[in-house]
Amino acid sequence: MVKALLRDNFQNTLRILAALTVALSAAVLYVAGAQPVAVGLFPAPWDKLAHLLTFAVVGLAAGVAGGMRGWRMALCCVAGALLVGGMDELHQIFLPGRSASWSDLAADAAGGLLGAAMLALMSRLARGRLGHRLKHH
To answer: What's the predicted TM-score (pTM) here?
Structure first.
């Protein structure tokens, strides 16, 4: 019973931290993206790699925050990346020297898929280790 309570508390804490990561990422993109230094910070094609990696983190965090498994978890990852990415692209319309693009949003979605794949792999590895430990006890 104590183990289950600790596990539940840990999972809830992890979900809260993941949700804060998504919110903080959105805030940083909003504030940092409005700075003049953000114009041309990553030249093509490196800007797409920056989108992919940034939104892999956002997507992974959204997947953890959603507390789902399987395809629903993957959907949370992609939806989270698209939500934050869409907000960022819309914001760029109003910023001097910045522009919104569908290709950036596509890179954001790909990042969400990468985050989902990373989360699925971590989950599989964790289950494998747990299963291995249970067999030897």
So the answer is: 0.84
